[in-house]
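Technical annex, item 7. During the second reporting period the consortium partners agreed on a shared format for inverse folding records so that results from different sites could be compared directly. Each record opens with the tokenized structure and is followed by the designed sequence. A conforming record, contributed by the partner at site C, is shown below for reference.
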């Protein structure tokens, strides 16, 4: 069924959520999905879940919590393998992605096409940066390969979104120029700090350097301030704890007119960067 027929003229609303950090992040995620769903249905929900379980990695139980909220698919990053279940989950569940530019011998995949109930197809890709990060293959070459696979698919995506999990702003911006006109949205994750740089690039791609963390507000990138501050001041490692209290919900909401062609500049109706305090 063509996407425009399946949608009956309704816009497609896609939500991209920043690093969901521990139990405060999962509660904030539930709050955010519920709040935005009151405005209009969310057709696709995509989250970065590398900090899902206690701030370090993910588990099947914590993933199931998110899928029960309506999450479509999950991207990850450098903390993916902090929990022993990750390798098994990458093989078992196609909703879980790992960075595409990890070694080819790494289990799982870094890109897939997800068909929404309306018939609209979203191609999602997960890349990881190399500057100030662990070893990885070239994200630029990896993006070229996965885009070729998307194009050659018998059912190519109607919309392409890429999560670049990276530390360096310059590396993310370089990838933005590399992908402008080839993907619809490039959004950064990893730093846990939302950047005020939502921009439409010259060839039509939308970019934000970091969508921000969905997790504890009064924290040091998610961690309890007391333990994190002690390490910065003394160099002595302290037990890691997820911070408590108020939480942030950070996300990118994209609204698409699926009846319009890919080359139509009005196809993306609205792009909204969200940063809201919750009681999660």
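Designed sequence (site C submission):
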């Amino acid at each position: 069924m063509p996407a425009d027929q399946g949608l009956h003229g309704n816009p497609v609303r896609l939500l991209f959520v920043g690093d969901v950090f521990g139990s405060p992040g999962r509660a904030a995620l539930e709050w955010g999905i519920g709040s935005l769903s009151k405005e209009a249905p969310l057709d696709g929900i995509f989250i970065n879940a590398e900090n899902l379980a206690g701030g370090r990695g993910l588990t099947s139980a914590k993933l199931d919590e998110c899928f029960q909220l309506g999450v479509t698919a999950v991207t990850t990053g450098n903390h993916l393998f902090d929990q022993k279940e990750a390798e098994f989950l990458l093989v078992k569940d196609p909703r879980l992605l790992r960075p595409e530019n990890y070694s080819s011998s790494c289990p799982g995949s870094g890109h897939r096409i997800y068909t929404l109930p309306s018939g609209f197809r979203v191609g999602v890709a997960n890349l990881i940066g190399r500057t100030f990060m662990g070893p990885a293959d070239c994200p630029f070459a990896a993006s070229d390969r996965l885009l070729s696979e998307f194009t050659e698919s018998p059912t190519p995506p109607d919309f392409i979104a890429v999560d670049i999990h990276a530390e360096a702003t310059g590396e993310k911006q370089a990838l933005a120029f590399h992908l402008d006109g080839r993907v619809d949205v490039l959004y950064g994750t990893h730093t846990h700090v939302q950047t005020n740089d939502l921009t439409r690039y010259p060839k039509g791609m939308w970019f934000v350097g970091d969508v921000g963390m969905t997790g504890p507000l009064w924290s040091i990138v998610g961690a309890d301030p007391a333990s994190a501050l002690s390490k910065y001041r003394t160099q002595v490692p302290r037990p890691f704890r997820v911070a408590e209290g108020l939480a942030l919900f950070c996300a990118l909401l994209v609204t698409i007119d699926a009846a319009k062609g890919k080359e139509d500049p009005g196809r993306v109706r609205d792009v909204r960067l969200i940063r809201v305090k919750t009681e999660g």
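The chain has seven helices and twelve strands. The first helix runs from residue 3 to 7. All partners now use this format for quarterly exchanges.
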